[in-house]
Amino acid sequence: VTDTPARFANRGMSLEQDINETNKHYNATGKAVIHKKPTPVQIVNVDYPKRSAAKITEAYFKQPSTTDYNGIYRGKYIDFEAKETKNKTSFPFGNIHPHQVDHMKQVLHHGGVSFFIIRFSIVDETYLYDASHFIWWYTEQTQRKSIPKQHIEENGHRLAIKYAPRVDFLDIVDHVYYS
Amino acid sequence: VTDTPARFANRGMSLEQDINETNKHYNATGKAVIHKKPTPVQIVNVDYPKRSAAKITEAYFKQPSTTDYNGIYRGKYIDFEAKETKNKTSFPFGNIHPHQVDHMKQVLHHGGVSFFIIRFSIVDETYLYDASHFIWWYTEQTQRKSIPKQHIEENGHRLAIKYAPRVDFLDIVDHVYYS
Ligand SMILES: [Mg+2]
Ligand SMILES: [Mg+2]
Fold first, then answer.
1. Above 0.90 for ipTM, yes or no?
2. Of chain B residues 62-81, which have a CB less than 8 A from chain A?
3. Nearest chain B residue (CA) to A5
4. Going from the N-terminus, what domains does chain B have, and what CATH number goes with each?
């Protein structure tokens, strides 16, 4: 549970905001239906004051068992995780949990589209990176606990940052998964 | 926000538990990947005590903008809402929000599978009821704020309660959406 405070602290970070804005745009224009899942919380105590909203007074962060985002696009199930890193040369496995990786494997197995959106925040570069590449690095080698940025540059797809939608990842998804 | 305390109170109810067990079974056997979304919560304050887990000390329930469950089955996006009612003769619209209904419309529009699982708890009958029927009652008539149980009996599909999986709704989904 040690990474969950960080997870909460991350909530205001710009990649997530960019993607949320982008999904709002997609949902509003009828292009796709994609939502961020709520942060999983274990609720322990709730007060029910008269005449006002129920107040949660004790709760704890839980480890997510799936990824950040899922939904439907062009008839396909779409599922992805967004991660920002300050690392300049590699994408560390850091707070990616084995059950999240299992989840991605299962999504691929069932014919869904599964990927990461990775932002290297120091250089402000954002990539779409297919889950199958990630899974290889995570499970098929034991030498390193990260993926070289160069591999992501070569095998991922750079996302341009625009005004609206902010990160038009479906434009890339069209090329990668529907052509 | 007035229905959210009830929503929290409902968390221990048996339909949701039955479906969660069923999804665990589906996930474990590789049949489908379906998860319940976490209850959406607006976090206002978090304490970070030394040497122990971050504690949320103030938070509020938010209205869900989507449905309870989604995932992938046989390559299709699947999305549904589970509701229990104590009403004996009809299924009241009660705490179903317009944006949840919009969400279901959009899922259908994009080619996804969308339905309700409705339990009439007094008589202990559980039905799978396609979202298109629900949407008709919710948006195309103004006479009533509920759906007659008889319509659900005739146009829905009764779900048997078994040992494992508890409510084998994919068995019905096979017949209704894949044949
Ligand atoms: Mg993330
Ligand atoms: Mg429900």
1. no
2. 62, 65-66, 70-77, 79
3. B54
4. 4-177 (3.40.1350.10)
